Amino acid sequence: MAEPSELTRHIESFVDSSRSQAQQAASLDAIVHLVKNDALFIGHLVKEMEMYLTTTDNIIRARGILLLGEVLTRLSSKPLDMANIHSLIRFFTERLADWRALRGAVVGCLALMRRKSGGTVTCSDAKAVVKSFLQNLQVQSLGQHDRKLCFELLECLLECYPKAVVSLGDDLVYGICEAIDGEKDPHCLVLTFHIVEVLVQLFPDPCGPIASFAGDLFSILGCYFPIHFTYPNTEDVDMKRDDLSRALMLAFSATPLFEPFAMRLLLEKLSSSLPTAKVDSLIYLGDCILKYGAERIEKHAGAIWSSLKEALYDSEEDPKLQLTSESRDGGNQIAREALSLLEKIIIQYDDMFLTLITHDEQINMILNNTTNYTSYDEIPMQSKKELLMVGRILYVSTKASISSCNVVFQSFFPRMMETMGLPVEIASESCNSDGNCAVRELHFGCFYICMELLVACRDLILVAEDTKKQFIPTTESYFCLLKQFSTSLSKIFSSILNRSINEADHDVFVHLGVKGLQTLATLPGGYGLILKSTFDNILLRLMSIIISDFGKTLLWKLALKALVHIGSFLHGCDDSEKILSYMDIVTEKIVSLLSSDDFSMPFSLKMEAVSVIGKSGLHYMMKITVKLEDIILIKLSECMIQGNLESAKIVLHILECYSKELLPWIQKNEGFEEVLLHLVVRIWNQVDNCRSLDVDTGGKDLLEAVIKVMKFAVAYCSVENQNIIVDKAYRILLSNPSLQLKGSLLTIHMKGFISTLEVDKLSSRDEWILSLLASVVIALRAQTLIPNLTTFVRLFMITMLEGYTIAAQALSSLVNKLDLMPNGALEEAMDIIFSRNFWGSYETSPERTGRMSHGNEIDLPNFLLGAAHSELLLNHAISGLAWIAKGLLMRGHDRVKDLTMIFLKCLLSEDRMDSFSLNEGSLENSSQQFASTSVMKCAADAFQIIMSDSGICLNRQFYATIRPLYKQRFFSTMMPIFQSLIIQSGSSLSRAMLHRAFAHIICDTPLLAILDSAKRLIPMVLDALTSLSKDVSDKDVLYSLLLIFSGVLTDKNGHEAIVENTSKIINSLIALSAYPHMMLVRETAIQCLAAMSELPHARIYPMRIQVLQAIVKALDDPKRAVRQEAVRCQHAWASIASRSLHF
């Protein structure tokens, strides 16, 4: 047992109102812990608290009773014997009369009555609680929290002890009415609404207590409708208007006894000018009508029907916009809820309301008047709104159920057909579906109503088949009517599109015509409702628009969208017969557009049509890709062998469509690997068979397009199929003597290599083979085997030096992925790349030769001296090595350091690099200048290649090996080196190039890594900004670096570093605000200056005049964006004076 003194301390801490809430909560937790662990029994606790529970001190007594109640609340799962439960509930029941200790009493009652097991309150005790509640509590005189507790207690009594409370009859209902009347708090209202909902369900007898008080109860509820609720403070954010409104709606519909009052109120509010009142009335009506029963609703049917028509008519929508919109309600909530209510009513009480609809005088008059107007534009606005209302009503009525569809179709569909003068044609193969069927006059209203009925019928069949898995009997009357008129309707909708329509009516009739054809083509059930010839004619008509009417933008777009909908529908329902027709008529002709020599239709439209049709289903995309493959190979052959420029243009456009539109979609779907493998192999065969390529004119663009498709197609393939592709490419390589020779070279003879570099270019065929081979290697998975890796590496090394960047990218992909390949492939490739023998033989002094010849390492100084008279060769070498370094860096290979040292050597060619090392690998001292400005710039830009993300190779799409945080590691390694080199550099040119290289690294490093080193980097960044601003060729790098600096400036983690360098930063930004070569630099610099105005006053105030003088000049900048930023910056810095006065 616990020591009494300890328990007493906890009790006194809680009942002491001067203690903090934290202390009181700790004491409560301690007592609960004792009871839960059986260190204290509940009976002993009550005895220990007897003085606090019975004292005449109101505050202590209230706190004591509350403590007992809170303890019991936290012991809901702990078993208690029935004797304790009985004595405790009796105590709290009596305490309900003690208004000063009421909260504790209610909390105690709630805690005991909510117990589900381990000791529960009996029905007799619950009845005593109810009686005490009704006799002693004046709920509306209490505070919000106490009222909420009281309502929770009432709710618990009604839900958990219905037998105990029902016996109280009228007294219970009257007491609840008194308790809830006048409540205003949202949290309490939700409880009161639920209390009423549960209460009325306890007395379902129409002659019971609720019948006597129904008017009183509903008068209390009705005053809250519609809910008007705002959020007076933040603590009410968890309470939403929808929560309140739903709770009130459930109370409204809880009993049919509310029907006389609820229906009158809701119908009255439906005529309100407030949109929320209309919407809520429609929602509430939908719930009440379903629960009140047919007998009670029947007497309100006429009023409900009239109110619905009025709500739809007054929904404040533009009829023309709705007629040409995909959405039926246009986002208007009143119309949406009105239509939803109508659908519920018809499903529940179809005979009652369908009679009202079919015999409605207004609807029949509107339909009769449809023949009064041939032009949509001449229809008065009131008539347009009425027509829209009728169309929506008929759509919902038709779609509600099969029986309602039969009634509506029989009542209105033949009438519309007769008005349009359409003949009845029995849908059979003997029907002449090729004849003309055009009406003399276009009556928009007839076409629109007919369209709504057709769409509703189709949607009904689809919903029935999808949700109920049932098939509609062909004997249904609407089915027979559709079958009779489908052919005639298809012809009439086609004739609408053929007719010359005035401009005012053009859009609505075009929408109707195309939508009509689309609806007929998407009728479910194979050819049961529509003939095959009719279906084919619809597709032919839509395709004729695509091919011939591309100048009519709206018609063309709608026809293409209709074809896509039809294709998606057929693909989804797996209608094999119609799919075959669609493939023959649509996909075949769509693909033929790309191969056509007719260039009158813009190729962008051809691409759009092919891509959207293909994406509407796997069947269509498969057909399109197979056909495109044939076209690509035919056109490639024509342009390669015959030099046909038109074929080159066509195949270039097709390849662009393939890579930009089709391949991204294919990569997200399965089943295309064999198709893509076949395409790749056939391209290789095509190149192999063409011994003399004639693609000089525009050949580069065509080759790039083929390369792009090749890479994406190879990347899609599995390892097994990639092995097939590599073997195919290797066999073609072996059959090419010149490329095979390059792949077998062991060393570069520099003099001869330089002399032939400009003149000994690869032939067109050799260039195609090399480029395609490189693109295959780039896209390979790491597990794919490469035969004779040595030949591949040497070929790519030689062609890399000849200026073929794709060869360098292939090499970088190899060294990046070879770690997963067997048989020491990585070491073999690295030996070739870094071999001294490969990098050339050049006659130098014996001293240098002796000094450089030891080891099997890359001899770049010797190579650079040998290539000193060829900037082009040096640039090719540096650029290629940069790609190799990128591949090594991404996988975390140490040899990237050797290549980095090469680039630094080029950057410091004017300087002496004394005692400088990079992780034990040192650069030798050299006083000879062997690098020109262009070579140094190329070496600086090598760091951009290394750090930037590439979309053409070395990415996840092409299975690159990417070590986490590789950029951050390289950044951390290089920054101290660059800092030291920049400080030691004695040449302005070398310093400028070092700054350019430094900027490339910074610009591609994640900002978080830069922020961690902000203090050390800010001075270097400022120096780089100044250096880069001197040469116009550095403007892009300057802008990128300035953007990174702005990120540091605006991030709170860089604040300290910015404050320490305030004056230097401001001076640098002032200079950049007048940078003449790029507007974006000036704009960003001024934005940074504005951000600097937020720094501590003491730091920036001395610079205020200087900044404002610079900004005055920027106010006259020729670019508007710069002037706008200057005004904002001027305002920010001018306000510093007023801030200083306040300070």
Automatic annotation (TrEMBL):
It is found in: Nucleus. It comes from the Eukaryota. One of its GO terms (biological process) is protein maturation. The keyword DNA repair applies. It holds the Pfam family MMS19_C. Residues 667-1092 form the MMS19 C-terminal domain. Residues 46-312 form the MMS19 N-terminal domain. InterPro entries: ARM-like, ARM-type_fold, MMS19, MMS19_C, MMS19_N. Belongs to the MET18/MMS19 family. This is MMS19 nucleotide excision repair protein. It comes from Erythroxylum novogranatense.
